[in-house]
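Fold sample X.
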Amino acid sequence: MTLPRTAGRRLLLVHAHPDDETLTTGGAIARYTADPDTSVTVVTCTLGEEGEVIPPELRELAPDRADQLGGYRVHELAGALAALGGPDHRYLGGAAHWRDSGMVLAGHGDVWAATPAELHPRALAAPEAFDEQLARLLEIVDEVRPQVVVSYAHDGGYGHPDHVRAHRLVAAAVQARPDVVARLFHAVVGRTTLDKGLAEIVGLPGLPFRAPGEDELPSVPDAEVTTRLDVTAHRAARIEAMRAHATQISVWDSGHGPVALAMSNEVAQPLLDVEEYVLAHGAGPAPADDLFSGLDR
């Protein structure tokens, strides 16, 4: 896709794997892609080759079997981005240049992750790969020239080594281009928002997923959240995008309003009509409901 050079606002979102863009920032992608004065670029760092596979009929794609999951997820990502409005998209370094590092569970039920003891030679989280990865990301920043960049907090949201690497790369890129990037946001979920969403789905008749344990789903204290985007208008697009990532996400519609989703661990998560962000870098005051509010063109 060719970027509209006349766009006054430019947004760059950097994600570790296919599906992360939809799960954490799908509403923002849909909202700003629909704005003719905003260009949106999504960067995906790996093909998500080490992901687990939910549908039984597709489990031969898994890394311990045919190891074809990454190629399949290229197709899933294309469908998800189309559902979200068709933003500009890049793979960091090109498709499959770096591989999903995988993860091991690190407590807190089946949600929190840590780095495996052994990494694939092309793993995104490989220490020696950082400088090349940063150079590739800076090439994109120099071309797109985004005023606003979005990625993860320092822990990657839930500890996955590729999310942590994406955070470090984005932080370094923003620091290296202070004349380009005006704001850096971390995508988060506030504790109260998560609790309210869970209260709407837990206990619903027919819910096929288990309720999460205390603190099993990642969230941040409400006071840390600086910006909340109302993405209610893009609910249908987000659901379609999640369904496109069928190997990774199960979506359940109650038929009465609330929608739940789960990863392969079958832990219920609510589909929230607000996306929350922390202004991690940039001049204040932090915008309340628009990532670009108050910025000069």
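Fold sample Y, listed below.
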Amino acid sequence: MRLTEISFGQARPIDGYGPGFFRIGGEVLHGAVLVTAGGARIWGGFDETAPLLALEGEVDVLLLGTGASIAHPPADLRAALEARGIGVEPMASPAAARTYNVLLSEGRRIAAALLPVG
């Protein structure tokens, strides 16, 4: 079997997560986070929509991690993002973190907004 090392370039991958935190590029952030190829920041959850809407033109898809299990995002948030050309893919936060890393390694224009687990 041939193994290929994954390169993220200058982008910071999601290294891990646990109860109430995410580790991104070696840095631990507590609470909900917004992760893009350019960096990571604390995110206020579904009540803080401005940073998500500001992704217009920067990303094609937003992976929306809804915590420990999958849930529907607020319909008005989905509609506002899609009106700006941003596709929304809701999934459990662990799955969103893994998917983010795979797509990031492929050079895709993506972001992940993740609610913490546990």
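Sample Y note: The chain has one domain: 21-115.
Also: The first helix runs from residue 50 to 53.
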